[in-house]
Design a protein that fits this description.
- The protein contains three helices and 17 strands.
- It is mainly β.
- The chain has a single domain, classed as Distorted Sandwich (Beta-galactosidase, Chain A, domain 5), CATH 2.70.98.20.
- Strand 4 and strand 5 form a beta hairpin.
- The radius of gyration is 23 Å and the shape is globular.
- The protein starts with 16 loop residues before the first helix and ends in a 15-residue tail after the last strand.
- Bound molecules: copper (II) ion.
- Copper (II) ion binds next to strand 10.
Length: about 350
């Protein structure tokens, strides 16, 4: 996870919050009962090694709880209420705070939610009020949030390493799904027809993909061996939510250091040596280690143990209301069953 800043007065400052700091180690915070998590939560501690190899324990590192999940399904006068199982962990990285929720639904959906809060990074500006060039309080590179205080435009890029094992670790493949209007020449005389095509991503280079709103692009990870009752590949689809492209140029330092942000999707064959999107040794490393380096081998991805890496970008154009403590900005994506079951798996949920 890296946060590139867009204000040229900042100099080369692009904190890599996971890597330089460690979202799961030094930055991990204890969950605050009743505030970070509801009254029915249970907690688990975590032990990780410090930089000398000594055990470092965080009490209440993880909260686990059920919460109301809204409507599960309904038709006419028949309806079911959903419950969701939530795993929560928090990290404070200097001024900023991140929370991560892994949310498990009765319909087989896994939601991944990242929450951004804490205190924005700021710089002092000479004029205490908005200057003439400011448009509704917005400067070219930031936003005035208090007299003499400007919060610069910045982005947050997360890399989620998703080690899919659909019906076993081996024999998995990744397909890309695109939906397009059919040409009128191909039996689309009314101009209303559109079709979805699935394309196998065969190699690491083919699997470096960007989102595409025009084709409603999603991806599906399937077992090539297991089938549901309809004979379809057993699979789960990755459904993107909010996302962004990097505004730093391809040659810039953050793009070199955190090359994972060059694509929204990466797929690699599983390797125990490839755990971190920017490589093992991040501090002072400018070399483009990690995903760009590994995938230059262009290994085969078909019918094997694969790992999916999803890049989630948030463009944070500060608001006045983000100061002095930022209300949570929630973002994320979903992993939903797609052929994994043979029908809606939540039919057995009883009515309240
Ligand atoms: Cu931000």
């Amino acid at each position: 996870m890296i946060a590139p800043y867009g204000d040229p007065s900042y100099g080369p400052w692009n904190p890599q919050d996971e890597g330089d700091y460690g979202l799961a180690s030094y930055s991990r915070n204890s969950v605050i009962p009743l505030n970070d998590a509801p009254a029915n939560a249970v907690f688990a501690s975590a032990v990780i090694p410090d930089d000398r190899g000594n055990p470092l324990e965080t009490p209440r590192a993880v909260a686990i709880y059920e919460r109301d999940g809204g409507l599960l399904w309904r038709h006419g006068l028949e309806a079911r209420r959903a419950r969701k199982l939530v795993l929560t962990a928090y990290a404070t990285v200097d001024n900023y705070d991140y929370a991560f929720n892994w949310i498990f639904g009765q319909d087989g959906t896994i939601e991944v939610e990242a929450m951004l809060t804490g205190m924005m990074n700021i710089r002092n500006v000479r004029d205490r009020q908005e200057d003439e060039s400011a448009h509704l309080g917005h400067r070219m590179f930031g936003h005035l949030v208090a007299p003499g205080v400007s919060a610069p435009n910045h982005q947050h890029f997360f890399s989620f390493r998703l080690d899919f094992d659909i019906d076993g670790a081996q024999h998995n493949s990744v397909f890309e799904l695109n939906t397009e209007t059919l040409p009128t020449a191909e039996g689309n005389s009314k101009g209303e027809s559109f079709s979805m095509t699935e394309r196998l991503l065969k190699t690491e280079r083919e699997a470096q993909r960007m989102l595409n709103l025009e084709t409603s692009r999603t991806w599906k990870i399937v077992s090539t061996r297991a089938r549901n009752a309809l004979g379809q590949f057993s699979g789960y689809a990755l459904l993107p939510g909010e996302n962004s492209v990097p505004y730093a140029t391809p040659e810039s330092r953050p793009r070199q250091k955190a090359g994972f942000m060059n694509a929204h999707l990466w797929v690699t064959p599983y390797s125990p040596d490839e755990m971190f999107a920017s490589g093992e040794f991040l501090n002072l490393n400018r070399s483009g280690d990690g995903l760009p380096k590994w995938t230059s081998a262009n290994r085969s991805l078909d019918d094997r143990d694969i790992v999916v890496w999803y890049t989630l970008g948030v463009t944070h154009v500060p608001r006045t209301e983000d100061w002095p403590i930022m209300p949570v900005h929630s973002t994320g994506f979903r992993i939903v069953p797609a052929g994994f079951f043979s029908q809606n798996p939540a039919l057995d949920v009883p009515a309240q």
